[in-house]
Amino acid sequence: MKKIIPFVMVSMWIALPAFAQSMKRHVDRKAKFSIQHPSNWKKTLNKGGINFAVATSDNLANVQVLAAPVESDTGTLYFLGEVEKAASDQHKNQIPEENRVVKTEDLSSMNVDEGAVGAYTLNYEGAVVKQVIMALRKNATMYTIIVTFAEVGEEQYKEIALQIGDSFKAQ
């Protein structure tokens, strides 16, 4: 788990948009997941500890997926709390504690055993940035899905960025 924490901090970069007309499915056979993304978003694979990243062309939104081995009994709420502590003082989860556990039907559609979610409003280099982090565990793999969009692009990108995150599926 310690290895993934520094890489999650990378997610603070504000990504590379153009609203997607068509979606593509990316399959990572090694990390054992798939995710859909707009065909016109820039895709980066296996860079800096991040298995998958897509970003808009105007740097206002991005989605990242990180996969890391963990003990099979590592709880996602615990893991999300550790990510928050390691990321920054700004990472104060705005979702009430009783609502942070991912619903059973969502776990099933993502093909994972357990999940937790956090929502954050951050000040990054003078810009307000919104971020959603999902910690999803399947067996002994923890997947961290990080959805980030600038507040100035929220109207344009929030819905599609969240759809990308929600399309994640462990294999």
Provide the low-confidence segments as ranges: 1-20
CATH architecture: 3-Layer(aba) Sandwich
CATH class identity: Alpha Beta
Number of helices: 4
Based on CA inertia axes, which overall geometry fits?
A: globular
What would you note in describing this structure?
The chain has four helices and nine strands. The protein is of the alpha+beta class. It has a six-stranded antiparallel beta sheet with strand order 3-4-5-8-7-6. The longest helix is centred in the C-terminal third of the chain and has 13 residues, at 154-166. It is globular and about 40 Å long. Residues 1-20 have low confidence and may be disordered.
What is the element layout, followed by pairings?
Layout: H1 4-9, E1 23-28, E2 33-38, E3 42-47, E4 50-55, E5 61-69, H2 76-87, H3 104-110, E6 114-124, E7 127-138, E8 141-150, H4 154-166, E9 169-170
Antiparallel strand pairs: 1-2, 2-9, 3-4, 4-5, 5-8, 6-7, 7-8
